[in-house]
Design brief:
mainly alpha
Length: 89
């Protein structure tokens, strides 16, 4: 597998995680953020990609800081979209 294939796989996996959150209705903010982004003109695919970047940022920070997933930080990152996260706080 090439680096590009790995990146495509990671992106697809993160987008699937967002889709799973939407289907489960948990956390509730995921649907609210998707609705907000749609209302301001973003295509669903673009919105899911941005949301996946927020999830990736939280996972990256979680691993770097060796801490549990911070649902509140994740929600703040989602609600800040379309502004993308700047990394670990």
């Amino acid at each position: 597998m090439s680096v590009h294939d790995d990146e495509d796989f990671a992106e697809a996996t993160l987008i699937q995680a967002i889709e799973n959150q939407l289907a489960a209705g948990e956390p509730a903010c995921v649907q609210a953020v998707l609705n907000k982004l749609s209302l301001v003109g973003y295509a669903r695919e673009d919105s899911l990609e941005m949301m996946a970047l927020v999830l990736a940022d939280e996972i990256d920070c979680m691993l770097r800081e060796e801490r549990p997933f911070d649902a509140a930080r994740y929600e703040r990152g989602l609600r800040a979209l379309p502004q993308l996260p700047e990394g670990c706080e």
